[in-house]
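Repro:
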Amino acid sequence: MADMLIKLYELETQVSFLAEQKALGITLRKPIGPEKHAIIAWVADHFGAGWAAEVDVALSNQPRTCFVAVKDAKVIGFACYDATALGFFGPIGIAKSHRNKGTGKALINACLLDMKHKGYGYAVVGAVKDTDFYKKAVDAIEIPDSASGLYHNRIKAPQPKSK
């Protein structure tokens, strides 16, 4: 795993990805307050407590730094930034049944454009497993010697005690 860097100042500001997702019946947007706990629970169920904690941070930021993908009034994906650290993109997750429809790339672009409009010049993606995805999606480049990155001394969650 390596950290990756995305040049936001080179990011195109077109938003055609929103219309492409809308044609699939998917809306990308920032959540409203009453949706917070439902989104955190969905993320915990699909991706675990660690990512749910980061989503909680992103939904608590003002303004929010999280986008959701919604279809038929149900969450099918999410993406966040400024959750792990300022200037960091992620986490991102799409329900397995909705992958390979461009929703992940659309959520990335929504977050990155939001970051660009706030004045960020770069975004960091931490501990990337699939570097090819980010290279293709947003021309991200690997940061040399970043294998352990920001997460190198992260506190591990305790394991449940057996009964």
